[in-house]
Amino acid sequence: MKKSILLSVLAFTLVSSLNAYELNGQIGVKWTGFKTEKKAAVSGTFNDIKLDIKNSDKLSDFLSTAKVKIVSASLESKNPERNDNITSTLFSLATSKLIEGSISKVNEKENTLTLAVTMNEVTKDIPMTYEIIDGNIIAKGTLEILDFNMKDSYLAFAKKCAELHENKSFSDVNIEFTIPFK
Questions:
Q1: At 151, phi and psi to the nearest 5?
Q2: Residue 99 in contact with residue 70, Cβ under 8 Å?
Q3: CB 148 within 8 Å of CB 119
Q4: Is 137:89 a contact under the CB 8 Å cutoff?
Q5: How far apart are the C-alpha atoms of 169 and 153, rounded to whole Å?
Q6: If we measure between CA atoms, which residue out of 41, 6, 5, 23 comes closest to residue 177?
Q7: 3-state SS, residue 58
Q8: Contact 133, 116 (CB under 8 A)
Q9: What's phi and psi for 83, nearest 5 deg?
């Protein structure tokens, strides 16, 4: 009898741990902005990203606990001049020293989620789709800079980069994050 109970507890623990979600590495964040009439893509990330996420047995519960803080001045495009052009206009002219995000909704049937992003003291819901590939949750969506009360910052950025962008900058930015889990 004791052996049966012990085996049952062991089996339950094994099955539970197989279904648990926990962070297995660092979050990846990618942004892609666009320039020129051809809408040429320019991508990058941030170097200072903090993720707080709790382990859970359910994917939706796991994702719903995610809270991220990004220092906007840590923007990294692998081009120092571009980094300076973006941080000295878009982020320094606004109160966007910190970008915060949390997942407010998860629909596992449709593989969608809603990311609440706070930037420049404005919070907006960003609809995203996600997929799970090789132990990674990869979510993608589009953020509109002007929705965050950043018109003056955006115009300063567009003016500063006019020659480099052939007089065409776009205010929509594709965003993507990757959460590795086990």
A1: -60, -50
A2: yes
A3: yes
A4: no
A5: 13
A6: 23
A7: coil
A8: no
A9: -55, -45
In single-letter form, the type of residue at position 104 comes to: S
Query: SS3 for 73?
Result: helix
Q: What is the pTM of this model?
A: 0.86
Tell me, what's the pLDDT at 19? Answer: 53
Confidence of residue 39 (pLDDT cuts 50, 70, 90): very high
pLDDT of 95: 72
| Type of residue at 153 | S
Q: How far apart are CA 9 and CA 94, in angstroms?
A: 55
161 φ/ψ angles, rounded to the nearest 5 degrees: -105, 10
> Which candidate, 6, 4, 5, 18, places its Cα nearest to that of 182?
18
What single DSSP character describes residue 166? T
Per-residue tokens: 175: 């965003």
pLDDT value for 17: 43
User: How many CB atoms within 10 Å of residue 74?
Assistant: 13
